[in-house]
Design goal:
The protein is an all-alpha fold. The chain is built from five helices and no strands. The chain has a domain of 49 residues. It is globular and about 45 Å long.
């Protein structure tokens, strides 16, 4: 959970998320340190983030950079169509696969 500078501090819910994934029969996969080739998905995301946000902007403050990146991530997940998942958004794909998951994650963070 990422909030603005004036919002409440994020809550540590890693154990709840781990249990949720386990109960949902989702297998977590961890990569080795300094082996980016093991996680091509995040590497592709970082490449897109750098190309579409970092290289196109000159930030005057940390907070401006944080706000811009947060807005991009929201756009990336909720509005940007992804060819690899049938020209849908990650949010649409998630809701399709896990219709009750968002509610369960919201409950975990409370």
């Amino acid at each position: 959970m990422i909030t603005g500078a004036s919002g409440p501090p994020p809550r540590f819910i890693a154990h709840k998320v781990r249990n949720f994934l386990k109960n949902s029969k989702v297998r977590q996969e961890f990569t080795h340190v300094a082996t980016p080739e093991e996680n091509s998905y995040i590497e592709a995301f970082h490449s897109i983030l750098v190309r579409e946000v970092i290289e196109r902007n000159e930030f005057v403050s940390y907070f401006e950079a944080k706000d811009t990146i947060q807005r991009f991530i929201k756009h990336y997940n909720e509005r940007r169509l992804h060819r690899s998942i049938g020209f849908t958004t990650p949010q649409q794909k998630w809701e399709e696969a896990m219709p009750n998951a968002l509610t369960m994650l919201e409950q975990m963070s409370n």
